[in-house]
Structures are given as C-alpha cells and as structure tokens.
Amino acid sequence: MLLLSITTAYTGLELTFFSGVYGTCIGAVSRFGAEEKSLIGLSGISVGVGEILGGSLFGLLSKNNRFGRNPVVLLGTLVHFVAFYLIFLNMPADAPIAPLEGTDSSAYIKSSKEVAIFCSFLLGLGDSCFNTQLLSMLGFLYSEDSAPAFAVFKFVQSICAAVAFFYSNYLLLHWQLLLMVIFGFFGTLSFFAVEWEAAAIIARGSDYGSI
C-alpha cells in the first residue's frame, strides 16, 4: 500500500492540474483572442472524451488483457509526459498565476488552440489509464477487505490534490509540470513493483491449485 501511495499521490496532483489549473492556463492566454474563455469548456469536454475512451479501452476490455496492468500504466505515463511537454512548449510559464486580464507572455512556440485542446484529451486519456489499473489492483490485492484500502486511496489522492491546489497559486507552470513528471516517474516504478508482486501471488496460487 505504501508503494501504491506514490502512484496515488501522482493521480491527485494530475487530477488538480487537469481539472483546475490547465483550464485556468488556457483562459489566461491573451494570444487566443476572444475565444480564450470558451476554450475552457472545450478543454473540459476533451478531458472527458479522453477519460471515456480510456475507461472503455482499459476498463471494459481488461478481462481479455494477457499482459497485465503494467503496459496500460506505462502507456498512461507516456501519454502524460507527451502532454506535459506540449503544454510546456505551448503555454506561457506565468499562465497559472496570471491576473484576471490574462498574460501576454510568449511560450516557446506560438500558442496554438488546437494543441491546447489536444493536450486536454491526452490528460484525460492518461488519467483513465492510471485510475482503471489502480482500482483494479486494489480490488485484487484487498478483495476480502477492500473498504480500508479504497479509503486510503481516496485519502492520499485528496490530500495531494489539495496540496496541488495550494501551490498552483504560487508556482510557475514549468515547476508544476516538473513536479508531476517526478511523481509520475516514481509512481510508475512503484506500480510496476506491486504488479510484479501481484503476478507472483497469482503464480503461487496456481502452483498450490495444481498440487
């Protein structure tokens, strides 16, 4: 559970980012013109589409998955890292802490509405990869006493989401992205370790069943 808490902490940080911080960043970019505020709604829709697609692919079809949970989590990590890199290039660094009037600062590339909405989709898709596999893992490891395990999961996730909301008012965008990359990297490694142990449990169970 301690190892899974690292992964859970990452899901709390990125939950805050795509649900609160990223929409604020999009709405603060003056270069998007008169459509900057309406793009916030489109961003939320894109996140939802990514969540639905990922939940359908990796949740409903997981029964036929012969390769375990690790490939799905690895895919979620890669999708999120691509999204973070594109956001880093596409959004001004001061977008999260910009005043109500917005920011005229330049990003590393010319800020693109299409890239911004595509990143929203990637954030939702990656989040669904993590959540479906985390919930599946908890249900497997704690099948006989799942309530405390899911309580710890929600507790850690909510605490980290609250912490992320706090620092999002003070840190520039690239520092927030760096924090999520660090937690995402170590959270993925810790999930791999737990999945390998779960595979060992299944192997031992099949050995006992054949005796």
Please give a quick description of this structure.
Belongs to the unc-93 family. The protein has 211 residues and is mainly alpha-helical.
Indicate the CATH class: Mainly Alpha
Give the low-confidence spans. Answer: 206-211
The CATH topology label is Growth Hormone, Chain: A
Q: Distance N terminus to C terminus?
A: 31 Å
- How is the biggest beta sheet arranged? none
What does the radius of gyration come to?
19 Å
The share of residues in extended strands comes to under 5%
SSE class: mainly alpha
Put simply, the count of helices is: 6
GO cellular component, one term: membrane
Subcellular location: Membrane
Family: Belongs to the unc-93 family.
Pfam families: UNC-93
Task: Report what the structure shows.
There is one protein chain. The protein has 211 residues and is mostly helical. The protein has a single domain (1-209), classed as MFS general substrate transporter like domains (Growth Hormone, Chain: A, Up-down Bundle), CATH 1.20.1250. Helices cover 76% and strands 0% of the residues. The protein is built from 6 helices and no strands. The model is unreliable at 206-211 (pLDDT under 50). The chain crosses the membrane at residues 39-60, 72-91, 173-194. It comes from Pipistrellus kuhlii. Its main location: membrane.
Identify the notable features of this structure and list them briefly.
single chain, 211 residues, mainly alpha, Growth Hormone, Chain: A, 6 helices, 0% strand, elongated, disordered C terminus, UNC-93-like_regulator, transmembrane helix
